[in-house]
């Protein structure tokens, strides 16, 4: 890019949405526009890679605190607290469109956090002395590590692994979305390979929790104010403790404004006969606690036998926290921030024509690599995960994946460049 290049005019949000809407209208009736992976001009994109943007650790301290409770109900509530904080970016900021991930692209980072226990929460089985708005175990910090890789291009799927070794808590899963444009909004659903987030607590006899994603709508396209609404149910199950949670998101409008209401119940269930999917079908005798509140504000739980709701978490003061990234000189060429670096720099410099040109070159190179593999009848395999997708939705790390994650833990990010070409 020339040093004398004149920055182009930055499109405002209104003109961005009009252009975006005109592109989307071409996909009315398409079953899944996410699988089409249409290419947007650079001025409509958030200058961030998808793998860096899309993670569930906007507040990693809630993840690190899972498993502290000695009580089974308390541990399910800790899982729920993590759930409500995982996507703060959509509550505190505007939804955006990052770069489409390319096959073999990967991202890794970490956070150093303290345990998180709201003073008012008083979770069952947690001994803590209230001191201020949060309760910490002294000044001890623990590390939460994250590794993700684009494992499939058609359909677009990425695998991820989260680990907090000091706490013995980990999580994994496949990210894939299905999107359909209705003409006024985009309905976003988990894809067929996205079976949710699987959380494991090693120090609690390897309890595993499966957290499924609800359907959501991206609205506001016509009025120029993007917003995400949810009016669906999702589920958290732990077969070992035989405890299940159902969360029902209720979008009740008042003078055109959503209230982001939430209702839920935590109850005993039979893992071998798991048929209950509605709040009203839960037998009162099985109920352990009820959940209520706003997923944009305060969320409460009320244990069975009590009439007084207790604060589980207050979303209001929370914002996404910054990541610890590998040094630029230790990032590989197919690592998200370096891979898209030239596009990001051009967008930030408001050189949108240049950014679009570089982006299109990247996309054309990936198409050519795919064609070369097809001609040679070569099968592409992920580097850090054992398979592109699995029937169980729970990816396993390869030896290189374990090495990469260990490097994130230790701060030694050095890896060899892969000889396998992406697509």
From TrEMBL:
Residues 361-382 have a biased composition (Basic and acidic residues). GO terms for cellular component: cytosol; membrane. One of its GO terms (molecular function) is sterol binding. InterPro entries: OSBP_sf, Oxysterol-bd, Oxysterol-bd_CS. Residues 361-397 are annotated as: Disordered. It comes from the Eukaryota. Belongs to the OSBP family. This is Oxysterol-binding protein-like protein 1. It comes from Penicillium cataractarum.
